[in-house]
Design a protein that fits this description.
By secondary structure, this protein is mainly alpha-helical. The protein has helices at residues 2-20, 25-44, 55-68, 73-92, 119-126, 134-149, 153-158, 190-202, 204-207, 228-242, 250-262, 267-274, 279-294; strands at 164-165, 170-173, 184-187. The chain has a 3-stranded antiparallel β-sheet. A hairpin with a 4-residue loop joins strand 1 and strand 2 (170-173). Helix 2 (25-44) crosses helix 4 and helix 6 packs antiparallel against helix 8. The chain starts with a helix and ends with a helix.
Length: 295
């Protein structure tokens, strides 16, 4: 049956995550969702077992996503990557004789330039925070650290209290989920140090009153580690108050990169701060800077 093999594949990914530090939980959840959608489509085509699936079925499914569901090329490419991984697994396990997606090519994806916030928008975002409250003091510290370092939101919520080193004006950004990404020592400007220290001195102890053992630097109102989703809800609320209609948590990271480049920092140094494995990933910000300067 379709679902049985899918469940076994997801279980194998989860096992690798626990033992080898492989695919992270976000990737596993995305794969489960993408492959479950494929199962629904195949069931509608009266296909009951994976050996029945051929190249034409997958090509028709990709066409369905592109034309009837209007998925963007980036989304289709991501879903195809999940399919390729899954069918490799089925083939290696001897469940199928031929891999129907082995030679299928992903749709051409034109790299889009990232959206960034202007200095005025960033300032307006920050002034929405009510710093008289415990959660407001936490939010201001989070926004200051994120904008000052360009770290990923996943990295921000993964920080523990000892990772903030006020005496050296820096934060230790840990490697990601046991992968090969090494930790980064990121400098903090005085405004971010002050906001974070104030949060630790005045607010965090009140938030963790029921969970005094919690190690997370940034916690929710229950006193437990804040999640990516929790941070997203917070920043969406402030953006709405500031009249910013188009915002993602990653936009502060993009805005940081642009700020560094405009300030004269070399691209390699920006790459190090952002933790990009390849300089080509960072070069998109140089392209964006040139585009904006020519407008």
């Amino acid at each position: 049956m379709l679902q049985e093999a899918l469940d076994e594949y997801i279980a194998s990914l989860a096992s690798k995550e626990g033992i080898h530090g492989g695919s992270n939980q976000n990737t596993i959840a995305a794969y489960r969702n993408d492959l479950s959608q494929l199962c629904v489509y195949l069931t509608q085509q009266h296909i009951e077992n994976w050996p029945q699936v051929n190249r034409e079925h997958i090509a028709a499914y990709l066409l369905e996503m592109r034309e009837n569901q209007a998925y963007r090329p980036t989304t289709i490419a991501r879903k195809l990557a999940a399919l390729k991984s899954f069918f490799r697994y089925l083939h290696s396990e001897g469940r199928i004789a031929l891999d129907p997606v082995e030679k299928l090519e992903a749709p051409h994806v034109q790299k889009e330039l990232p959206n960034v916030l202007s200095a005025e928008q960033v300032s307006n975002l920050f002034v929405q925070v009510e710093v008289q409250t415990s959660t407001g003091q936490r939010d201001l510290a989070m926004l200051q650290v994120l904008y000052a370092t360009g770290m990923r939101v996943t990295e921000l919520v993964s920080l523990n209290v000892p990772d903030f080193v006020a005496a050296q004006s820096q934060v230790v950004c840990p490697g990601r989920n046991g992968s090969t990404r090494r930790e980064r020592i990121l400098p903090l400007p005085p405004i971010a140090v002050e906001a974070t220290q104030h949060y630790l001195d005045s607010a965090r102890s009140r938030l963790v009153v029921h969970h005094p053992e919690e190690r997370a630097l940034f916690v929710n109102h229950h006193g437990e580690r804040l999640t990516r989703q929790g941070f997203w809800l917070i920043i969406k609320g402030y953006a709405r108050q500031a009249g910013i209609t188009d915002i993602t948590p990653h936009m502060l990271r993009h805005s940081f990169a642009m700020l560094m480049l405009k300030g004269g920092m070399e691209l390699r140094s920006v790459q190090e701060l952002l933790g990009h494995a390849h300089i080509s990933t960072t070069q998109v910000y140089s392209q964006l800077a040139r585009t904006k300067s020519s407008v």
